[in-house]
Design goal:
This protein has 528 residues and is of the alpha/beta class. The protein has three domains: 67 residues; 191 residues, P-loop containing nucleotide triphosphate hydrolases (Rossmann fold, 3-Layer(aba) Sandwich), CATH 3.40.50.300; 181 residues, no CATH class. It has 15 helices and ten strands. The strands form three sheets. The chain has a six-stranded mixed sheet, with helices on both faces. Strands 7-8 form a two-stranded antiparallel sheet. A two-stranded antiparallel ribbon has the order 9-10. α1 packs antiparallel against α2, α3 runs parallel beside α9 and α13 packs across α14. The two termini are 52 Å apart.
């Protein structure tokens, strides 16, 4: 029904309603005058009842007229608060991307940011086809496009890569991009990676089409309901319905609507047959011979096409705005993650450097009483450089204060004694004893430097917070996580390697210890 027809009917009904109201008022007044000659109270009661009835009828008529005059396909405008939030998120992402040092990582994030800026002014809708492998996703894309879009095979999980196609929908202003994704719950090499990629595309879709070929199973129910609860606009398409008798198809549709009640509009659960089985018939010729004819059936996707067009036409701008906000948020989160990776790597390099400075300082110092004091001076500088790795401006007096607190806590918890317990009976009274004992003590103090350095790393990474339990708990966590025995063995190996490297500069440097696991020296971060 056109808008003109709807408003014509509404105006006609309004005129009729006004005439009816006038007639009712006159009739009620006449009735009141007649009854008042016999009983005024009775006349007032009857007139009031008649007036209430007339008001009720009028309200009902007005509601009917409003429904008729209302356009069910009226477009939903994009909420201005969502658009503003997307702009703010994008600005936050810009500031974070500028801080990323790795060229490849920064370039990848910048490309996503540029695409986000470009999509603001484009009339583009991203529709993602999502579901279990071989539910008929590629067949559906082919049916929507009107031509073959990819390999269609009976083997589960034949879509190995993301395939993107362009589609025009009659009456819709803008371009629709159909994206065919790898399937869920794939078995074999790369299955988990492809599923993760499919889920990521599903989250970023303007409109999601979840394809099934049976009732929901656990591997489908959990990702679908998770997306629906996040507010992802979705259509559930029950595919291959040509295989079912009508009663079974209707029973599955009813069960789907029950399972997804409150999460998705029942109108958004539709039955389709994207690639119906061909009809095989035997034809007898006039001469008595028989031949087999295969008749290809047309895809049965009309209801799905109508639903896609209706949703994009009515809600498209609102969906695009929400999706831009989501993409800006995801970009901000990814930028934060990459920046954190870089900052942690730089902080680890600082810890590694001061670990060896501490070891050298302690080894050459013949007086154990001054070892911890010398280490404390090193700690103050290490703290300042770790803060710099996390872009925190730390005043020298503040660095000395928290450094002193760290040393006091190390002594309080007895970690110095624990770390140097391997010295056993060695003393620094002889040259041999000095060399052996000094080496073990140097390694022990380097170990303590690493523990305190890792604690400070977490402190600055958490926004200058020690977390639950304060400084003491932070130190104990790092002490428990960092295996002393493994550290000392690796430290000794690296010490020998460094000595050999002095005599053979072409020798490959040793890796750096982080806790009990080696960390390859810093290199360019590959694009993820």
């Amino acid at each position: 029904m056109t808008r003109y027809a709807r408003w014509s009917i509404s105006i006609g009904l309004a005129v009729a309603a006004i005439g009816l109201i006038g007639w009712s008022a006159a009739s009620i007044g006449d009735l009141h005058d007649r009854l008042s000659t016999h009983s005024r109270p009775l006349a007032a009661v009857i007139a009031a009842a008649a007036a209430c009835t007339a008001i009720g009828v009028g309200a009902g008529a007005a509601r009917v007229m409003w429904r008729i005059g209302r356009d069910p396909n009226k477009r939903v405008e994009a909420p201005q608060d969502v658009i503003k939030a997307a702009e703010l998120q994008t600005e936050a992402a810009v500031g974070l991307i500028e801080q990323v040092k790795n060229d490849a990582t920064r370039g990848r994030l910048q490309a996503e940011l540029n695409a986000l800026h470009a999509d603001r002014n484009r009339k583009e809708f991203h529709v993602v086809i999502f579901g279990t492998g071989s539910a008929g996703k590629t067949s559906l894309v082919s049916a929507l496009l009107g031509h073959a879009a990819g390999t269609i095979e009976p083997t589960m999980g034949t879509t190995r890569t993301v395939e993107r196609h362009t589609q025009r929908i009659d009456g819709l202003e803008g371009t629709v991009f159909l994206t065919d994704t790898p399937g869920l719950a794939e078995i074999g090499a790369g299955g988990d990676r492809r599923e993760a990629e499919a889920r990521d595309l599903a989250v970023r879709a303007d409109l999601l089409i979840f394809v099934l070929d049976h009732d929901l199973i656990r591997s489908e129910f959990e990702p679908l309901t998770a997306l629906l609860r996040k507010g992802k606009r979705s259509i559930v398409a029950l595919n291959k319905t040509d295989r079912f008798v009508e009663s079974d198809r209707d029973a599955i549709l009813l069960k789907l609507r029950e399972r997804l009640e409150g999460l998705i509009d029942p109108r958004d659960i539709v039955a389709i047959a994207a690639n119906p089985r061909p009809t095989v018939t035997r034809v007898r010729s006039a001469d008595g011979t028989e031949r087999v004819e295969v008749e290809t059936e047309e895809p049965q996707i009309e209801r799905l096409q109508e639903r896609i067009a209706a949703i994009l036409d009515r809600e498209g701008e609102s969906l695009r705005a929400a999706n831009l906000l989501l993409r800006a948020h995801l970009l901000t989160q990814e930028s934060k993650r990459q920046l954190t990776i870089e900052r942690r790597r730089r902080a680890q390099e600082v810890i590694d450097k001061y670990q060896w400075i501490t070891a050298g300082t302690v080894f050459v110092n013949p007086l154990p009483a001054f070892d911890l004091m010398a280490t404390g001076a090193v700690q103050f500088q290490m703290i300042s450089e770790i803060a710099g790795a996390f872009a925190v401006e730390l005043e020298p007096r503040h660095a000395k204060m928290i450094g002193s607190q760290m040393i006091q806590m190390l002594l309080k918890l007895g970690m110095v004694e624990a770390a140097t317990s391997l010295i056993a009976g060695f003393v620094k009274s002889t040259l041999v004893g000095h060399v052996a004992g000094g080496a073990v003590q140097a390694a022990s103090m380097a170990y303590l430097t690493r523990i305190s350095g890792l604690a400070f790393l977490e402190y600055f990474a958490a926004g200058q917070s020690w977390g639950d339990g304060g400084l003491q708990a932070a130190l104990i966590r790092q002490f428990d996580l960092t295996s002393r025995g493994e550290f000392l063995q690796e430290f000794a190996r690296q010490a020998v390697d460094r000595v050999l490297h002095k005599f053979d500069p072409g020798r490959t440097p040793a890796t750096t210890v982080v806790g009990s696991k080696p960390l390859v020296p810093a290199r360019s971060e590959p694009a993820l």
